[in-house]
From TrEMBL:
The keyword Membrane applies. One of its GO terms (cellular component) is cell outer membrane. Keywords: Cell outer membrane, Membrane, Receptor. Pfam families: TonB_dep_Rec_b-barrel. This is Siderophore aerobactin receptor protein. The keyword Membrane applies. Residues 44-223 form the TonB-dependent receptor-like beta-barrel domain. The lineage of its organism: Bacteria, Pseudomonadati, Pseudomonadota, Gammaproteobacteria, Enterobacterales. Its main location: membrane. It is found in: Cell outer membrane. Coiled coil: none annotated. It comes from the Bacteria.
């Protein structure tokens, strides 16, 4: 969907989709012979099954002035995996849920007759994942576990291009980001509990320099 009134400097958009796929070819070879062609499946094991469904939504907005254009986008995605497969004498159930959302605000100069073009932006990405695992013997549970993982990135960036002549330009940019993640899991194996957790965070600064020259009206060389 797109809403863009005539003679107005703004517009908005929305999109949503859903996709589902299924598969029945999920089998494994022995762990000690990964190049072998003999599947690790016991007689009487059920057929493997996997289903993945993905839902996506995007909301966007745009505002234009005489000298600048501002873009705002926010997107979400959810994935759900249902997965069952035999491994040797075990039956493995491994459902998984995965969620992600992204937001970005960007401002860029507008127009051709400029000595300097600029882009500024703010960015955020957040990811969350949950994985359940259950390994069952024909007569009893063998192993079960649940794991959680999260990751987040916050960033600010800027890029400038200086048009020295109508054919030659140089540019530079910088990106500051803060990244953090965490993971934890717990479970039991033949009645014996286990688990662990951990966290990490980091700050990064990335930069870039570029130069371009228009050789002819049809050819331009560029280095970065």
């Amino acid at each position: 969907l797109r809403l863009a009134p005539d003679d107005q400097p703004w517009e908005m958009g929305f999109a949503a989709s859903r996709e589902c796929t299924r598969a029945t070819q999920d089998a494994y070879v022995g762990w000690n012979d990964i190049k072998g062609r003999k599947l690790s499946i016991s007689d009487g094991s059920p057929d493997p099954y996997m289903r993945r469904c993905t839902d996506s939504q995007t909301l966007s907005g745009k505002y234009t002035t005489d000298d600048w254009v501002f873009n705002l986008i926010s997107a979400w995605q959810q994935q759900h995996y249902s997965r069952t497969f035999p491994s040797g004498s075990l039956i493995v159930n491994m459902p998984q849920r995965w969620n992600q959302d992204v937001q970005e605000l960007r401002a860029a100069t507008l127009g051709d007759a400029r000595t300097v073009d600029m882009v500024f932006g703010l960015y955020r990405q957040n990811t969350r994942e949950k994985l359940n695992s259950a390994y069952d013997m024909p007569t009893m549970p063998y192993l079960s576990s649940t794991g959680y993982t999260t990751a987040e990135t916050l960033a600010a960036y800027s890029d400038l291009t200086w048009h020295l002549t109508d054919r030659f330009d140089i540019g530079g940019g910088v990106r500051f980001s803060h990244d953090k993640s965490s993971t934890q899991y717990h479970g039991s194996m033949l009645g014996n509990p286990f688990g662990d957790q951990g966290k990490s965070n980091d700050d990064q600064v990335l930069g870039q320099l570029s130069a371009g020259y228009m050789l002819t009206d049809d050819w331009r060389v560029y280095t970065r």
